[in-house]
Amino acid sequence: MITTAKKIFPFLFLLVSVHAIAQTRKGDFSAVDDYVKSVGALDTLNMGTISYILTKKFPDSKDKSRAIFDWIAYNISFDCKAARTNGNEISTSDFILKTRKATSSGYAALFQDMCSVAKIRCLTVDGYLKNNTEQFKEKPNEFNHTWNVVQLGQSPESWYYVDPTLGSGYTDDKITVFTKAYDDAYFFADKPIFNLQHLPDNKAWLLGAAPKGSNFFSLPLVNNAAYEFGTTNFLPDNGFIKTKLNTSMQFSFKVYPGSAIDIVALAIGEGKKKKIKTVDYTLSKGEVKFSYKFEEENSYPVTILINNKPVLGYFVEVDD
User: Fold this and answer.
1) Which terminus of the chain faces fewer neighbouring Cβ atoms within 10 Å, N or C?
2) Residue 86 falls inside a structural domain
3) Contact yes or no for 17/229 (Cβ under 8 A)
4) Residues 2, 186: contact at Cβ < 8 Å?
5) How far apart (Å, rounded) are the C-alpha atoms in residues 266 and 296?
6) Which long-range contacts (CB under 8 A, 24 or more apart) does 249-252 make?
7) Which residues are bridge partners to 179 per DSSP?
8) Cα–Cα dist 238/137, whole Å
9) Claim to verify: residue 174 and residue 242 sit in the same structural domain
10) Could you give the maximum distance between any two Cα atoms of the chain, in Å?
11) CA-to-CA distance for 147 and 112, rounded, in angstroms?
12) Helix (H, G, I), strand (E, B), or coil: what is residue 38?
């Protein structure tokens, strides 16, 4: 997951893949995706021409938006150095296209500019995004992430979240290395999950209801794979947990109907000390439940894994 800072610094029925379920919800964009791949980097053209080439084949605004999202995610990389030194300062589209790098504000601005050329109403939204389990604290002094809202109609139901930064890949916790990894979960993203992961500085841009329970900054860390499985309604709903040694702790969360879950595990600790512990779980009516007894007295990050993919992150303090 990427964050930046302004001045500081993703029986036969049961076997259907979650990706296919998500595709059914959003629509089939395979023709758009294949076309964007076919046009390539377009590295000698300006922003307006690129936008025109990407969108001219598609009369539907949703397809046009998808084409722009795809191209940016395929061709622009997150600028870790700029994020660490200059924060979330915005760069011009011309500069981004020249360097093929941007911070989140640059990604969002480029997406907005290209949508404008295609006559799609799009706005940028500044706000907050947690990057690691050490950030279960109070609200930062300044926003640290930027994304987009695409408006395809007048009702709020026709407004959609797009995060081209997270759609392009992810960084390590210290924002030193960027890994290119296209993720279309961030195109017209699942709103409840997006709202667990993003908080707009202006709540007028909170599409749908705000998360219930703990305030945003104390919620568990919601990882990208939460979109794949539809991970919501989790307990505990506080990312910082205090518990006793060898005392049973209860965990639960909702997933999409038909989610193919093979294994649930906990990643405990970090670095060379990280341990993966498989847990016995139940899955009933779309709710996963399990319990776990922490056997080591210490404080450490704990990540819930589904099929070895991280979905939720906690920081656990265990004492005797």
Assistant:
1) C
2) yes
3) no
4) no
5) 14
6) 249/291, 249/292, 249/293, 249/294, 250/289, 250/290, 250/291, 251/289, 251/290, 251/291, 251/292, 251/304, 252/287, 252/288, 252/289, 252/290
7) 170
8) 11
9) no
10) 65
11) 10
12) helix
Map tokens 């191209």 to a residue.
71
Which tokens go with 294? 């922490």
CA nearest neighbour of 75 among 94, 102, 113, 56: 102
pLDDT tens digit sequence for 82-104: 988 877 777 899 999 999 999 99
Q: Which portions of the chain are predicted below pLDDT 70?
A: 1-26, 137-138, 213-214
Contact 299, 315 (CB under 8 A): yes
Whether residue 166 is found in the same domain as residue 35 = yes
Residue whose entry in the numeric block shows the structure tokens 């040694």: 245
pLDDT of residue 214: 65
Look at the pTM and tell me if it is higher than 0.85. Answer: yes
State whether 299 and 153 are in the same domain. no
Residue 263 is predicted with a pLDDT of 97
Number of separate domains in the chain: 2
Does 299 lie in the same domain as 254?
Answer: yes
Q: Which domain holds residue 36?
A: 13-213
Contact between residue 294 and residue 246 where contact means Cβ atoms under 8 Å apart: yes
Under 8 Å between Cβ of 120 and 64:
yes
- So what's the pLDDT on residue 38? 98
Q: Which residues contact 81 (CB under 8 A, 6 or more apart)?
A: none
Q: Which residue has the tokens 């407004």?
A: 159
**What integer pLDDT is reported at residue 15 of this predicted model?**
27
277 in the same domain as 156: no
